[in-house]
Amino acid sequence: MNGFKFCVLGSGSSGNASVLQSGMKWVMLDCGFSIKQTKERLKRAGLALADVQDIVLTHVDRDHFNPVWCRTIQNQGINVHLHRLHVPRAMSLGLQSENIVAFDGAFTLHGCTVEPVHVAHDELGTFGYVFDSGDERLGFATDLGHVPEHLLSSFSNLDIVAFESNYDPMMQETSGRPQFLKERIMGGGGHLSNAQSLCAVQTIASQSTLSHVVLLHLSRQCNAPRHIHSLYEEHASALRPLLTISHQDHPTPMMQAGKSVNMVQEVLF
Ligand SMILES: [Zn+2]
Asked: How much distance in Å is there from the Cα of 209 to the middle of ligand 1?
């Protein structure tokens, strides 16, 4: 089997989408951008919309499932894989039943085992995933209220981990956001701080042989890559060469398990 190839097309509260080559097929993880934006970003990654026949959803908030996709999904006969908990809401947003492949536990996709991991986020929660090709394993988790033990047990023996690193607590506290929003984000059912994310990544790294650590869903208002770089420099300098920080506005380089990316990953600001 070919090695995993993985690219985050963009990540943040204005939209999320990533692509993973599983076997010889491309799978999209979340579809939170417009069709036009997605096509442009796929093109930059050397792909076209027609290359994607499957979408796996973490949850159906608008930044992960943009309802403008419903028509394209129907027209192109794309299979949308989502947990049965999220089916009623996805259908209420316009997703047709013939395009839904609901799961309740692990499932197989193009020769890859996909293990969903349920984590807290707002009312219905969200799903992290471990994609296991038999040779390689990729873990993907975003929009976590906190990091539960069962997620850390599943995220072992990974080659690539993509993990949320949403906010810097000081920037969050001084952001001028209303208190209820700060509490929603930081209260264990919203998003992960940089330190919470790093702590989980360190545990995952200790039980894996990682070639890439990819950070997802940085808050535009309450985070900056320089905070993440200094945190890693201070507490996990061995992981810094593996680090790719995703961006809201442009795709990451295409990553491959076992191979490093020899280029500047993001602009420091
Ligand atoms: Zn989100």
From this structure: 28
Spacing, Cα 234 to ligand 1 middle (Å): 28
**What is the span of the domain harbouring residue 109?**
5-256
Does the pTM surpass 0.90? The reply is yes
pLDDT, residue 267, reads 39
The mean per-residue pLDDT over the stretch 223-245 comes to 95
What is the tally of structural domains in the chain?
Answer: 1
Answer whether residue 263 is part of any domain: no
The rounded Å distance from CA 252 to ligand 1 centre is: 18
pLDDT per residue as tens digits for the range 141-196: 999 989 999 999 999 999 999 999 999 888 777 887 878 777 777 777 788 999 99
Lowest mean pLDDT among 30-39, 56-65, 120-129, 194-203: 120-129
Q: What angle do CA 216, 82, 246 make, to 5 degrees?
A: 10
Please list the alpha-helical segments (H only) found in 20-76: 35-44, 69-76
Q: What DSSP designation does 253 have?
A: P
CB 32 within 8 A of CB 64: yes
**Ligand 1 geometric centre to CA of 72 (Å):** 22
Instruction: State how beta strands 52-56 and 79-83 pair.
Output: parallel
Residue 266 lies in a domain: no
Q: How far is the CA of 259 from the centre of ligand 1 (A)?
A: 28
Q: What CATH number is associated with residue 246?
A: 3.60.15.10
- Please check whether residue 222 lies inside any domain of the structure: yes
Decide if 173 is inside a domain: yes
Residues with CB under 5 A from ligand 1 (ion): 63, 143
Please tell me the distance between residue 1's alpha carbon and the centre of ligand 1 in angstroms: 32
